[in-house]
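Side project, low priority. Logging it here so it doesn't get lost.
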Amino acid sequence: MTRDSRLAGYAITGQGRKAEILYVDGAPLMAHKPIIPAETWWELQDVLNGRSTVPRREKRSVPTLLAGLRILRCGVCGANMVGDVRSGKPYYRCHRPRGAVAGHGGLAVSQGVVDDIVARRVWMRLSALDPADPADSRLLTEASKRFTAQRDTSERKAELVAARTELEHVRAARHNLQTDREAGLYDDETGQVMYRESALRLRDQEAVVTARVADLEAAAENTVDIPAEWTEPGEDPIGPGSLWESWDLAERRAFLALFVDAVDIAKAAGRGLRANTEERVGIRWAGEDGDKV
């Protein structure tokens, strides 16, 4: 039961031990409201897999920009990083305890500094986009797909699944009808009339459902361009009066999810001014496997 990803609200494909989380455009598809937070479920999997001790009850957890997106990774062990507060200051830390991985001393970094670095890098790249550049073109294409998916509704996806299922049933019914006819079940006059009526009805129904499936699939493939204003953020893209500043946490997360697959935090070279936080932050861009800036 504790292995079941549906506890975290994820949609699955397959059954039993072959069940896997269903991903759409690189993101897990949510099927329903989670019973337990996704972050808690993933931590539980680490415990069950022997990669972590039992996680402590987190009393200082606060909503965060990057940890809440589950894109923040520890550069030492690859685990997710979580938000925490120490002496009144928010920071991100690897959720694995010290000593869980060889050479892992417990990685942590200032939350506000990292949020600022990531947001500025994304806006800087948007302002310098060159559609003729292959990397920028791939980023724009992937971001447009995700932007479309964010604005798509679960009702449309459910409608497509239902239409495909209906089409399968109609085709199966036509096949069964023909099989019954060949078996002689419609040989008499009444049977022939019934066969013709059923055959015509199923033929017309298949045509209608086939057209609906095609329309829904075409709509799913259409992408929406990202807003043009995003590529002209102004002098300070996250400062007072900026679009970023006007957004709430959910809107900022949705924005970053369009362009960023992961943020890796490397181990610090020192403390204080020597912590080189800017150099510790690496971004893996959407649509670019291994491309980190």
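Brief comment: Residues 209 and 230 are 39 Å apart (CA to CA).
Revisit when time allows.
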